[in-house]
């Protein structure tokens, strides 16, 4: 097997240019599609004899789940293949930063950019849930913010179809402790309501610059989600936005919003008449006919790029991030 290096060609089509992300399961490279003459991101599964089978199952699941989700706010998957016993996933490049980097460099964000990012992520989740897919790992590192304010939800590596058996190892808890829902923390299956809880944690972190549940160790942090209320938000956060975050962070899934589309409506990202659209009967249980894919509402002129990008960074300096910045897992 050839080592991954600049200039290596995969599938007799994709030429690797530079590695732009790295994680426990895969490396992500900027590459050139020689057939369509465009830049792409190529996520290549890393060889791991001890976990190869389960990693490959998750990798294939990511390809299938992502390719089926066509929405402005979800990263697009172009191709999946195998070359010299090496599996790879080809997807769009996103010009911008992961939300985790924005928060790390900027700290607490103003309410309007938070509202826009949160609403766009909710629209992405609405599409995934309508397709019967639960993300299970919603967090800032998996939300990319483009330089024009457009948001892309990415990394469906541990997503699960509602009627599928998850690929887990004995004793393994999927998800990231800082953003995991209470029901996942106690070993219950993740649902669409679990994704909404994680989105609420992300919203709280955007508004404060700090993770609301962080006790230093994975177990202590996970139990914190189960037993402790989130810290109160500042009074200068608009009341309606505080109400949305509070509803997302309800401990009981039944007390959270009915579905992700309802969250988008609450944030003004979708027409109010869609508030009662029955995306699913049990928050997420499968597809319902007549679902409307909504156009994204980007940041308005009153919320400039600087509001969602690190300060002192010109748009031309914003790096290209792949659709799976796994080195930023946190």
What does this structure look like?
- Helices cover 28% and strands 18% of the residues.
- With 330 residues, it is α+β, with helices and mostly antiparallel strands.
- The protein has 2 domains: 83 residues, Phosphorylase Kinase, domain 1, CATH 3.30.200; 217 residues, Orthogonal Bundle (Transferase(Phosphotransferase), domain 1), CATH 1.10.510.10.
- Strands 1-2-3-4-6-5 form a 6-stranded antiparallel β-sheet, covered by helices on one side.
- The longest helix is centred in the middle third of the chain and has 20 residues.
- The radius of gyration is 19 Å and the shape is globular.
- The chain starts with 8 loop residues before the first strand and ends in a 9-residue tail after the last strand.
- The C terminus is likely disordered.
Task: Summarize it.
This protein has 330 residues and is α+β, with helices and mostly antiparallel strands. It has helices at residues 52-67, 99-106, 111-130, 182-185, 192-208, 218-227, 239-248, 260-266; strands at 9-10, 14-22, 26-33, 38-45, 77-83, 86-91, 94-98, 133-134, 143-146, 151-153, 160-161, 320-321.
């Amino acid at each position: 097997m050839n080592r991954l290096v600049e200039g290596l060609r995969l599938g007799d089509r994709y030429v690797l240019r530079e590695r732009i992300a790295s994680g426990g399961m895969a490396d992500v490279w900027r590459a050139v599609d020689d057939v369509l003459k465009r830049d792409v991101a190529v996520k290549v599964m890393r060889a791991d004899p001890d976990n190869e089978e389960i990693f490959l199952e998750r990798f294939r699941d990511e390809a299938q789940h992502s390719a089926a989700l066509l929405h402005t706010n979800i990263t697009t998957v172009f191709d999946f293949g195998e070359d010299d016993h090496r599996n790879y996933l080809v997807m769009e490049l996103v010009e911008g930063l992961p939300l985790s980097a924005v928060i790390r460099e900027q700290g607490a964000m103003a309410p309007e950019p938070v509202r826009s990012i949160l609403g766009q992520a909710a629209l992405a989740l609405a599409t995934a849930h309508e397709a019967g897919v639960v993300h299970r790992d919603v967090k800032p590192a998996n939300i990319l913010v483009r330089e024009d304010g457009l948001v892309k939800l990415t990394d469906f590596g541990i997503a699960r179809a509602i009627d599928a058996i998850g690929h887990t190892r004995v004793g393994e808890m999927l998800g990231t402790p800082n953003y995991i829902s209470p029901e996942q923390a106690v070993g219950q299956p993740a649902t669409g309501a679990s994704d909404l809880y994680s989105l609420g944690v992300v919203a709280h972190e955007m508004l404060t610059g700090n993770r609301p549940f962080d006790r230093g160790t994975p177990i202590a942090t996970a139990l914190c989600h189960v037993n402790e209320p989130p810290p109160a938000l500042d009074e200068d956060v608009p009341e309606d936005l505080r109400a949305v975050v509070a509803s997302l962070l309800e401990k009981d899934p039944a007390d959270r919003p009915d579905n992700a589309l309802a969250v988008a409506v609450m944030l003004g990202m979708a027409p109010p008449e869609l508030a009662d659209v029955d995306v699913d009967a049990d928050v997420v249980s499968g597809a319902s006919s007549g679902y409307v894919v909504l156009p994204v509402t980007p940041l308005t002129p009153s919320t400039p790029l600087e509001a969602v990008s690190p300060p002192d960074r010109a748009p031309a300096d914003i790096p290209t991030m792949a659709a799976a910045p796994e080195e930023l897992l946190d």
